[in-house]
Each structure stands twice: as structure tokens, then as C-alpha cells.
Amino acid sequence: MTVSARAKSPVDADLAIVGAGPAGAACASHFVRSGFRVVLIDQRRFPRDKVCGDFVGPAALAELDRFEVFSQKILAHATQIRTGALYINGHKVVARPFPGIGSLRDYGLCVPRLLLDDTIVQAAVASGAHLIEEARATGYETQEGVVTVFYQHADSPKSLRVRLLVGADGSSSLISRILRAAKPPRRYRTIAVRAYFEGVTGRTDEADLYLNSSTFPGYYWLFPTGTGAANVGVGMPLEAWTPTQSLGQLLTQLIESDPALRDRLANAKMLGKIAGWPLATFNSQLPIIADRVALIGDAAGLINPLSGEGIQYALRSARWCSETLLDALSTDDLSARGLRPYAKRVQAAMRYDMALSRLIIDLAKHRALNPVWLSALEVVGKRAAVDSEYSDVVAGLFAGIVPAREFLARPFFWRASKSAAIMVLRASRGRQERLTSMFKDSVRHPIASLEWSADCALSAVELATQMAISKRRRS
Questions:
Q1: pLDDT tens, 76-120?
Q2: How far apart are CA 59 and CA 296, in angstroms?
């Protein structure tokens, strides 16, 4: 057990963690196990719901195994997902079992966040973390040897003096806004909505992803949450969203117009209301540390822009934070310099993968090119339908369990890319009207086209840089 160093000033605890979701609660458990005094602050009372897709993938399940939180209660309410299916413009392109990568499970779970988050936070409390509920953080100040966290609790302003503050308060994080002195840039923001349905038909172990020309590069989904029940939603990069209607209205329209989704929900009834939430995706240029302050999970923007998945990165960053900052806490070297090992760990683990995801999303944001991108994706899907190795790697990339460097190093990726490019070019021949429309769109919106080109160029340079760094490290 690590023994805490003596603080330069009297403190109430070693750490305060603002936000008791999966990232904050897991982080609390890790630090308590190492002998530190931890206070968890959350503005809600548990159990509480969280708007989400509810899917917990194999990488996140591996992190949860460290806490032994898979009680009979969770397993009794979780739905095992063993197959993923992709639909494009209402037609099923591919359906394949989840890949078995290394020691990871070959399935995911759909777990209501009401249950999942409460189980993780109760595990943190059981390990020794002190939980303050219904407490809204209002700010913080760093001074020599201490950081003071201000919060509102029981209608009274209160404060807490600690050695280290960890911001785990989600994509709308107050701690992040103070640390970075700004909100996440529009380019790195995503919006999503979801609703629950009962009376759903079809397989209960298959997660369905849907793409079509009107919503791409956004996607929508149906994740079974039990027999005859499902979480149904849609997510969209904010820059690609032209709000002629609300995202909730778009979801309703998609349910009515997409034949594949409509079939599964033909006799279904929506439970409650459609609910939405914002996401801030990974941006390697934004800081996640400052003197005596660190960000984890959604508060740090650790969300994959390609899939919108964040739970696995929330849980991983909680562990990375605890593993890399033990020495800093033990020696009370909690300056930004002392916290740098955590920032480096995040960059090393995520930057390459997120560079590829960001480039894919940036390329796909040009809505006039949707037919081209969807044709290419159809080629990829059809190849995955008949090639299990290819399917496992592509699905693993999307799920965040196959590193981008491994994906790009596969010879079949380059062969498939070449085949897709050839097929797309062939499909475009003779379609002068479509090509003319794409050109006219660029002329009508020159600034948007220039911004798109600049974003794609920046993403391409970032990916090329990460590829070069990775190659140097291997050699």
C-alpha cells in the first residue's frame, strides 16, 4: 500500500473526483486501493440514469473485471450481444459474430446505465471512497500545495481542500472548461439521442448499425436490452448536422422510413421520451492536465469520433491516471510537470487510433460525397461478409479493440482499399449528374468546402505523423 506524502497545507483528502460515473468511480477505487483518501462528488443521487447507448464492449468489460462488479444483479439485467449487423440504405450488408481478440470476450453487454453506474460507484464506496451526492461543483482554485474545490450541497456553498483534483464530470465538464478556458471546438463535438422500446422483434443478441444517404456520416442503431426490448438512437457529428428538424424528429423519421429498422419496430411501443446528450470527442491538442488537476473520461474528450464510444476509454483513463500518478501523489509533486506521465500515457494509447478515426470522419463530412462513401462502405461490408479475418479486424477497429497501427499494417487493408476505389470509380462512370452536383455544391459553399479540405489535410498530416512515430519506435 502506498503511503501518502505529507501535504504542504492541511487538506481534507488526497483527491477529490468530480463526477461519479464510470470514470470517476473507477478512478476512486484504484486510488483507494493504493492507500489514498478519496472524495467523490456528484450532482445526482445514485442510482441515477444516464442517457447512453447502453452498450458495454469487450474492452470495457475487461476493465470492469478488475473490480469484480459483475454481480448476479448485473448479469440478470444485462443482455449479451454476440453479433453485429450493418445496414446501408435499408439493406443488410453484413452480419458477423463479434471478434475474439486476445483475451477479450467475444461478446458485449447491453446494461442499463441506471444499474451499471450504481454498481461501479457502490464498489468505490465499498472500497473506502467517500461519496457526496447531490453536490454540484461550482469551481476550483489552485494554490501552493493545495487545490480547493467549491460545490453547492444542501443549498449551501461548501469547499474541499485536496492535493489533487480529477475532473470526471462528463462531456459538459465544468472542470474541463476551467482548465482549458474554453468549450470543445465545434469540429470535435457530436450529438445523439436515444429512446427505449418494447415489443421489438428479431434477435436479442444482435446489435444493428444503420447508415443511409440522408444521415451519413451519422449512424443510428438498435441495441437489444432484453427480450422484446431495445435501445434505439441516432448520433451525428455536429458539423455534419443541418438542423431543419430536431434530432429526435430525425430518429422518428428514420424509424418510419428505413425498412430494416421499421420491420423490427413495427409492433413496438416507445417507453418514456426521446432523450439526448452532447459528446466531446478526442482532440490531441487540448490539455488534460494542469497544476494539481487532471481530466479523465468524457471530461477529457476521450471518445472515439468514429463510433462515439466512450465507456472503455473512461474506464481505461481511470486506470491510467491511477497507475501513472502514484509517484506524483506519494512525493507531492503534483505540478503540471509531475502529472505529465498521465498525459503521455493517454497520448501513447489513443493518439494513433484517434487520428485514423478523425480522418475517416472528416472525409465523410462532405455530404455531397455521401454516395461515394456509402458505396465504399458497401464494398468493405461485402468483403467482411465472406472474409472472417477481414471482418474481425474491421469490426475490431470500429470497436476500439484493434489498434490502428495493426489495421493499417495489414496487406489486405490496402488490397481492399484499392478494390473499393476501383468499384466506386466504376460506379461513378456515366453518372455525370451526380458529379456535376458535387461540383456545384462546392461552388455554392466555397468556405465550407475549404474548411472541409483543411480539416482533411490536418487529419491526414496527424495520421502520417503518428505512423512515422510508430515506425521509428519499432525500428
A1: 889 999 999 999 999 999 999 998 888 899 999 999 999 999 999
A2: 17
